[in-house]
Specification:
single chain; alpha/beta; four-stranded parallel beta sheet; 13 helices; DNA-binding LacI/PurR family transcriptional regulator; DNA binding; HTH_LacI
Length: 345
């Protein structure tokens, strides 16, 4: 599996200092600092059994010699590397789809303040069949894993059920007590939206879902079904275009009081179709995620907001706690229902 690799490495380095016509080495740093080579190596790799005085001596010696610590890192066994991987599955390049990239940005930014190296990999169901997650992590010396976007039928989703490497699953509940999880309560959020639609007088509510295989789809549909006596569910694969075509061709649409879409992108497709059909009494429309476009479409979109920046930052914190302290966390973050013009609920 190899589609993207993003390495966040701070640079701004000078040319290596020359010692008697050659680049400075770890031995030169050790000699300059008056410590052992092993001590220098431990300082550069953040081992905890080095005193602050020794650490300062090594840092000053390295600065004086313009020594590049990565020269020492190359000599280390891969088991000493500290690498965190973010794996995103099923990436789609569609306008307005920002969640995966917000996660990538948030994780990268937060890890930039740590001494962990960060790599990003995109994957697909096909690539997962070619190489197991365990094999992939072993080959790339991964210390910890953040993963998002898997379908419940994906090989990696199944493998996570008995996975042992420190891992945080984002928007996934894989039934493995050794894996940390983080998400909002998708089921509760969908149930609350449905109930508020009903309280506002919308009786006949159509639920426009993503797929049957995505866990967030399953949770959101379960929340909707828990509140309606006669559920009506259609799948549009999180596609604006599919949502548009479905609503554009929907017969007896006047009988629908509200359309609740499991993503903002599908909700925007619904709004476009309703405008094109020029229905005198259009149904209310609610989305999910509060993507950037939700406040700028016409009418502005009522939706469920989840804070991806907070989710990304907390996911990294939980992963580091698992790597360093063997602490596993199952976390539900708060959500907020944002009421705009498309549905006054």
């Amino acid at each position: 599996m190899k589609t993207f690799v993003v390495k966040c490495v701070k640079s701004n380095r000078k040319e290596p200092h020359m010692v008697s016509g050659r680049n400075a080495t770890i031995k030169d740093v050790a000699k300059e600092a008056g410590v052992s080579v092993s001590a220098v190596s431990k300082v550069f790799n953040n081992y905890g059994d080095i005193g602050e005085e020794t650490r300062q001596k090594v840092v000053e010696a390295a600065r004086k010699l313009d020594y590049i610590p990565n020269q020492a890192a190359r000599k280390l066994s891969s088991k000493h590397k500290k690498i965190i991987a973010l794996i995103l599955s099923g990436l789609k390049v569609e306008k307005g789809v920002t969640m995966p990239f917000e996660i990538l940005t948030g994780v990268s930014h937060y890890l930039d303040e740590t001494d962990y190296e960060f790599v990003f990999y995109g994957t697909t169901t096909k690539k997962q069949k070619e190489k197991s997650l365990k094999q992939f992590c072993a080959e790339h010396s991964i210390s910890g894993l953040l993963i998002q976007g898997l379908k419940t039928t994906d090989p990696y989703y199944q493998e996570l059920k008995d996975f042992t490497l420190p891992t945080v699953a984002i928007d996934l509940q894989v039934g493995n007590g050794a894996i940390s999880t983080i998400s909002i309560d998708n089921q509760q959020a969908a149930a609350e939206v449905t109930e508020r639609l009903q309280q506002a007088g919308y009786a006949n509510i159509l639920f426009l879902n993503g797929t049957k295989q995505d866990e967030v789809s399953q949770k959101r549909e379960a929340g909707y079904r828990s509140k309606v006596k006669q559920p009506r569910v259609v799948y549009a694969h999180f596609s604006e275009e599919e949502a548009f075509h479905y609503v554009n061709q929907l017969e007896n649409i006047e009988e629908i009081d509200a359309i609740f879409a499991a993503s903002d992108l599908m909700a925007i497709g619904v709004l476009k179709a309703l405008r094109e059909r020029e229905i005198s009494s259009s149904p209310a429309v609610v989305g999910f995620d509060d993507m950037a476009l939700a406040n700028y479409v016409t009418p502005s979109l009522t939706t469920v907001r989840q804070d991806i920046e907070v989710m990304s930052r907390q996911a990294v914190r939980d992963l580091l706690a698992q790597i360093e302290n063997n602490k596993v966390t199952h976390r539900l973050l708060p959500y907020e229902i944002i009421v705009r013009d498309s549905a006054k609920i």
